[in-house]
C-alpha cells in the first residue's frame, strides 16, 4: 500500500475547526509542528478526523512503539480494568508490583542490593533520586 492516503487536503475542515477550538482553550506551550488531528490509530497507521491516513513516524509514548491498538496491549488493558484501574502503590501492596521488581532484580547485573522505583515521568524519577540521595547521605 502507498501512504499517505489523502481524501481531503490537510488540514481538512474538521481538523481546522478542532485546531481553532484548541487554540482558544489549550496552552500554546505544546510544540505541535503541524495541524494533524488524530481520530484513531491501528498499528503504524493513524487516521485523521477528515479520513486521511498517514504512517505514524513518531516514537510515541509508553506502548506506542508496538503500534496503536496492538491486540495484546488492548487485552492487557481490558484485563487490568476488569480488576481495578489505578495502582496506588504508595498506599497499598500489590503482587504484580512485587513480581515485576523480582524480575527486574534478576535482570539487572551485579550482586549488590537492588531496589526499584516505578515512576511515570522523568520528573518523578528525578524527585525520587533526590529523596534517595538525601536519605542515603543524611543531608
Distinctive features:
40% helix; elongated; three-stranded antiparallel sheet; 4 helices; Aspartate Aminotransferase, domain 1; mainly alpha; 139 residues
Task: Describe, in plain words, how this protein is organized in 3D.
The structure is a single chain. The chain is mostly helical and 139 residues long. The chain has a 3-stranded antiparallel beta sheet, with no helix packed on it. The model has no long low-confidence stretch (mean pLDDT 91). A hairpin with a 4-residue loop joins β2 (45-48) and β3. It has helices at 13-25, 71-83, 95-107, 122-137, and strands at residues 38-42, 45-48, 53-55. The chain folds into 2 domains: 13-80, Aspartate Aminotransferase, domain 1 (Alpha-Beta Complex), CATH 3.90.1150.10; 86-137, no CATH class. The termini are far apart. It is built from 4 helices and 3 strands; from the N terminus they run αβββααα.
